[in-house]
Amino acid sequence: MSYSVRIQRTAEEWEELLADWSGDYPLQGVIEEADGYQVFFASAATAERFALAHGGVVAPVAEAAHSWWEDWEPLLIGQRFFLCPPWRNEATPAGRLRLAMIGAPVFGGGEHQTTQLCLELLEEVLRPGQRVLDVGTGTGILSAAARALGAGTVWACDVEPAAVELAREHAAVWQGSANAARAGCADLVVCNIHLAVMREILPDLRRLGTPLLLSGFLADQIPELTAGLHVLAQREKDGWCAVWAEPKG
């Protein structure tokens, strides 16, 4: 069973809502309607919190309403990745690494620009054998990508129980945040998470003293989020951004 909330928002208001998206509200999916959006959640409690914060009424959704999942098409991301829903049987194109694009109640199925930007940068910067820490792992898609690229060890963490359960297929995962990680534990840290949480955990990410691959924010927020960091590479897609940076000094 899933739950939906219908909200009346213009496209501009919805973009702003996504930019300030809270980790308390892991979206299962969104359908654009004539006068707003229908937002889906796996948890009734999460849907209730979302409705209270943003308006709307919670309603249960029959499984048949999830037929839109079946319409997801495979995606070619960067030069290396082939994102394909688990139920599709297309052959993986030559030279590509297959990643499952999972219809799940946590963020990170691969369809969002920030996830795609992370994958594009990850294939450029990750070196075989490196240790990777995936903070706010969601579905674990970035952990799966790191493993496919030849990472030596991949750890991940998330505060959402559903994410922890799902991501265990791709990495060693704990329920919690980056403050439980010790400095020097990884060679690369990836973090694709919304702005409000990014602001909270940046001190811990910097404390780790390792290169950071960060996404989940807009172009005009880069200066704030990279203060004290040296930006090595930057990507942008539809206003969303990802950066690869390392601590200064």
Describe this structure in words.
It is a single chain. The chain has 249 residues and is of the alpha/beta class. The protein has two domains: 2-68, Alpha-Beta Plaits; 75-247, 3-Layer(aba) Sandwich (Rossmann fold). Helix content is 26%, strand content 31%. The protein is built from seven helices and 14 strands. It has helices at 11-19, 44-54, 113-125, 141-148, 161-167, 195-207, 222-225, and strands at 2-7, 29-33, 36-41, 58-61, 75-77, 81-84, 97-100, 131-135, 153-158, 172-175, 188-192, 212-218, 229-237, 240-247. A seven-stranded mixed sheet has the order 10-9-8-11-12-14-13, with helices on both faces. A hairpin with a 2-residue loop joins β2 (29-33) and β3 (36-41). α3 runs parallel beside α4. It is globular. The mean pLDDT is 81.
CATH level-two architecture of the largest domain: 3-Layer(aba) Sandwich
Strand segment count: 14
Structural class: alpha/beta
Low-confidence stretches: none
Count of all domains: 2
CATH names the topology of the largest domain as Rossmann fold
